[in-house]
């Protein structure tokens, strides 16, 4: 079977929010996808569209992250710190 070359889908007008690319494993389509910063997109929507930052983040999560255009669809990531993840280790384990 010939290997298909699946094009990466880019967001129009969001080049400055592009962080890099991610190579997906074969079981997930084997394509290369563009990775964008959700924080940068939300800031741009705030600045250019007059949304509050809460409205902009909600728009990104509800409208953009859920979009699917087939294999090659971009990904969105958000900045995070350790505080954003629940700890699986208890300090008082006997």
Protein architecture, described:
With 94 residues, this protein is an alpha+beta fold. It has a domain at 29-79. The chain contains 2 helices and 3 strands. The chain has helices spanning 38-49, 53-64; strands at residues 18-23, 32-37, 75-77. It has a 3-stranded mixed sheet. Helix 1 (38-49) packs across helix 2. It is globular. The termini are far apart.
> Biggest β-sheet, characterized?
3 strands, mixed
The main sheet orders its strands as: 1-2-3
User: Mean pLDDT, nearest integer?
Assistant: 86
| Rg over alpha carbons | 17 Å
Q: Into which percentage range does the β-strand content fall?
A: 15-25%
Distance between the termini: 56 Å
Helix percent band:
25-40%
Number of DSSP-assigned strands: 3
In terms of structural class, how would the helical and strand content be classed? Answer: alpha+beta
Order of helices and strands: EEHHE
What's the overall geometry?
globular
Unreliable stretches covering 5 or more consecutive residues: none
Query: What is the count of DSSP helices, taking H or I runs of 4+ residues?
Result: 2
